[in-house]
Amino acid sequence: MIYFFVIMTAENTLAAGYKNEIRGFARLVFEKTAAHYGGRLVSFVIFGSVARDLPRPDSDIDILIVANDLPRGRMPRVNEFTASVERTLEADMRGLRIGKGINTELSPVFKTPAEVEAGSPLFLDMTLDAWILYDRDGFCGKYLDSLTRKLARLGSRRVMRGGGWYWLLKPDYRPGDVIEL
User: How many domains does the chain have?
Assistant: First the structure.
C-alpha cells in the first residue's frame, strides 16, 4: 500500500488561499457580466492560468465573453464592459489588492457566436484548459468539443518547451497540405 502525505506549509496554504480568492472573484465577475449582458450572454469562459489552476497573485483573469449584439470593433466592446461591469468591481479589486496581496486584472475577449464559429488560435488552449461558468444551450462546450475532435484527427498536440508551449497542429505535415479546423 502506498500512502501520500501532503504537508501544509505557510507557502502552499497561502497559494491555496489566493487561488480560492481569485476563483471566487472570477465568479463575481461572471455574476456582474451576466447581470449586464442579460439575454445577450451566450457563454462565459475562464481560460489561461486561472483555468489551469496555476494563477499567481499577479495573474490576470482571462475571460471569453460570447454574446449577441455586441458593438462592432474591439474598443467599443471593451468600453461597454469597462463601464458596465469592471467599474462595479473596483472596490472588490481594491480589497483583493490591499487586503489579500492579490493584484489581478481582467483580460476579457469578446466574440459573437458567429465569430466563435469562424475560429481562432485562441481556442486551441481552451480545448485543454477552460472553466465554463455559463454556456447557454452548450454553445461553447459543443464548439470546443468539435475542435478537440478535429485536433485529435490531425494528431495535434500541445508541445511544452522552455516554460511555455506551442501547438503542433499536424505532425505529419507535408508542403501543400491544407490544415482545416
Answer: 1
